[in-house]
Amino acid sequence: MRRTLVAGNWKMHGNSRSVEQLLGELKPSVAASAAEVAVIPPYLYLSQAMSLLADSDIAVGAQNVCKYRGEGAYTGEISAGMLKEFGCRYVLVGHSERRALFGETDECVAEKLAVALEQGLQPILCVGESLEQRSAGETLRVVGRQLQAVLQGVNQPLDDMVVAYEPVWAIGTGETASPEQAQDVHAFIRQELATFDRGLSAKIRILYGGSVKAANAEELFAQPDIDGGLVGGASLDASEFAAICKVVN
Ligand code: PEP
Questions:
Q1: Quick one: which of 161, 209, 155, 213 has its CA closest to 185?
Q2: What is the pLDDT of residue 249?
Q3: Which one of 90, 120, 135, 228 is CB 3.0 to 4.6 Å from 5, fit for a cystine?
Q4: Of 164, 184, 72, 46, which Cα lies nearest the Cα of 113?
Q5: Annotated catalytic, 13?
Q6: Is 20 a catalytic residue?
Q7: How far is the CA of 172 from the centre of ligand 1 (A)?
């Protein structure tokens, strides 16, 4: 049985005051949700989020991780070991913004995923096609390639991995994939995982991301292969994010 996960990616938003306010409102309002709830703040607010959530079930994740192991001369980077020591449960890898704006390749994403797993973090692998790729009928080829880079490139058990299907054209645009469009790709991802390892496929959660809001979450999460959501913009609004978490029962 896969427990629904709703994770809020705050991206590069917020300040100490807004973090306090957002989490203060969120804590009581998601306490009764059947979903596992996680927030993914910018690095600098991880410590504050961790303290504010110490008495809550809300998990904390990071938005990025260094692909290199251990410590070393990697100015500006944060290691998987540091995130683990800090109490992070999740870490995003391969978000489309990192692939597009920071040049992260499939190979780099696989390296980051491997170091995260080695340190006991649960990596959330983001995959998804651009509008041009969808229009050209290349959705499954692109998503398949992104997934295979990890399945073939990571040399350790993948049981703790989460996959997030995030069509790039739906991220931050207000345009959501229809439940059928999303389910088709999720079923494909599940099938690819099954071909790799049947047991893994039944276990791994596949989230949908791309303009998820309270108004569309219920229908999306009701799809058989959608195990929750990776939520960007709507996760910055406590009542909207709580309403998304509450559709899970
Ligand atoms: C995201 O950043 O992962 C995301 C899905 O953003 P949004 O919900 O704003 O589309």
A1: 209
A2: 79
A3: 228
A4: 164
A5: no
A6: no
A7: 5
pLDDT band at 155 (very low <50, low <70, confident <90, very high): very high
Q: Which of 95, 97, 111, 129 is catalytic?
A: 95
Closest CA to 168 of 232, 108, 116: 232
19 with 44: CB under 8 angstroms? no
Domain spans in the chain, listed from the N-terminal domain onward: 5-247
Ligand 1, residues 5, 6, 9: which to mutate, most atoms within 8 A of Cβ? Answer: 9
Q: What is the mean pLDDT of the chain?
A: 97
What pTM was computed for the model?
0.97
Length of the chain: 249
When the candidates are 3.30.365.10, 3.60.15.10, 3.30.930.10, 3.20.20.70, the CATH number that belongs to 5-247 is: 3.20.20.70
